[in-house]
Amino acid sequence: MKTGSIQIESRTERLIAVREFVSEAAHEFGFTDEDVSKIALAVDEACTNVIKHAYKFDPTKTIQVVVRTDNGVFEIAIRDTGTQFNPAQVRRPDMKEYLSHYRKGGLGVFLMKSLMDKVEYEIAPGKMNEVRLIKYLPH
Amino acid sequence: MIDFKIAHREQQNINVLELKGYLDAHTAPKLEEAFQHLLTSQRFRIVVNCKELSYISSAGLGVFMAFIEDVRNNKGDIKLTNMSPKVYNVFDLLGFPLLYEIFKDEQEAISRFFEKSKQA
Q1: What is the pTM of this model?
Q2: Where exactly are the structural domains of chain B?
Q3: Do A15 and B25 touch (CB under 8 A)?
């Protein structure tokens, strides 16, 4: 098993650094450019959720992104210590209903689930919340 | 480093926004501001040229969602053009092609506004 990690301040301008870090690891692991883009977007969405919802834009907080690779499995864990936010409870929006209600949030979790093979959560409010995004290397 | 830029021009009375770079939660407020500016000045016929848009996340998609209803209520539209396959795939995943007209080419989108006004 190989691991690598990056820690960022909870600020949206740091999203680009996370995308670059994850993209490099995914490329190295052997994913196609298309899959690398999907993984980077999913991780961006997870970190954006933490910045907005768990930390409510408090820039003094930090987010840890850990990449673990093992035997065809690429896993990214996004960790925070903020308020509980459970993406498992976010349902896929009905786009027609969505349009008619003029909403602009809630798309990130749906994207994460669509882009990755598996999304897992471990929520321990006030201690550590972890979202794990998993993608398998095609044989 | 250029993370995101918007150029605005008017062509045949249509407002064209050219997006360049990375549209994420950090840069989405810039696009929001650009749309807000157009709406405040009563300009509702909008084409967004995505030729140089390298990346979009849900924060960027949310901006399109936030303004479309107001724009259409004022007999306008937001039409999208020149998307790379990578950017198009994100729009497609969320079913946006059902809600927005997406064209390969900017001129096609501009012409479409005039087709509609002839019919009206």
Answers
A1: 0.90
A2: 4-115
A3: yes
